[in-house]
Amino acid sequence: MDYQAKIARNVASIPRSGIRDFFELVQGRDDVISLGVGEPDFVTPWHIREAAIYSLEKGQTTYTSNLGLLSLRKSIARYVESFFGVPYEASKEVLVTVGVSEAIDIALRALINPGDEVIYHEPCYVSYSPSIVMAHGVAVPVVTTKEDGFSLKPERLAAVITPRSRILMLNFPTNPTGACASREDLEGIAKLAIEHDLIVLTDEIYSELRYDGEKHVSIASLPGMKERTILLHGFSKAFAMTGFRLGYACAPQPIIEAMMKIHQYAMLCAPIMSQNAAIEALENGTAAMLEMRKSYHQRRDFLVKRLNEIGLECHTPGGAFYVFPDIRSTGLSSKDFAFRLLEEENVACVPGGAFGPSGEGFLRCCYATAFDDIRTATDRIEAFVGRLKSK
Ligand code: PLP
Hints:
There is one protein chain. By secondary structure, this protein is of the alpha/beta class. It is built from 14 helices and twelve strands. Helix 9 links the parallel strand 5 and strand 6. The model has no long low-confidence stretch (mean pLDDT 95).
């Protein structure tokens, strides 16, 4: 049978994730230091794990409401109001999802009609463009540059808006660059969203991980924006809960209702033990989260300093746990650099090109890795770059 002919065209047209392809090569190799996968090296704090275990002990092994446990939605609403300054009604404006990944997918499917344009800033998280295409939308990237600290400038956004534009996707702090947006830029972006009647999908997954005492501002908190914003957040990064697969969406009720219909048929609900653990994370997890953040902050400072010393120019990212050094001075493509670094020095980083064409010439290094490993990895990168430059 010609299976390729049986695969839906929009699915056949999207590539596999460049990150996953690369990490299949890493699997099974000894002595590799990975600055690759964007996942905390911390185990989920014990009191949160214990809440999941206790949930099982009590025999809580059932489905929950499609929207998620009301007690969790109440915790989410309280947390979102205190952290982002945006109030949502727990009973109808909050939907618990299987990670932010599911929330992105169902938000796009709930809003896109075939041919609608969805704008996002690039380099960006690997799922954005494929998720838009799978929802039959048209992916419209706006390039962000090293010179702008990889933040989205309103004038660059204005240049790509057309009458078909329907959604703007934002992600600050950004995966893979760690970029943050200033309040001033967010205000400019909000003005354009209102003028052009765009729905804004803001992926806030790294919002707790801001450094240097900077306070995170979400576009949802700006005047006139709550009504046109879907705020997505989750537990994977700040609470080190990737395996719990839990996230949420906060939005006006008709949008939550539309997303819930897809969620109800495709997923039914998020796992109940993860939901119980998430309540514990929101109610009592801040101290552990701040400890992890302190450690990421120290690692960021060390890694940025070392990469600049090595001659791989690197801006200081304001958030998340990634740095995005410029490797163009080595003359290698990002893929060749990453493959050779892995082959010759056993250090895994992700080629910048995996995050869209504008990521080419850069490398993503994740510093959610033990400090000593980061130190050894930078020594190995130094040796590798030294050899390249001496040729
Ligand atoms: N959004 C961004 C920007 C991410 O970097 C990631 C994971 O790396 C996700 C969403 C997926 O998060 P989750 O584990 O909640 O599905």
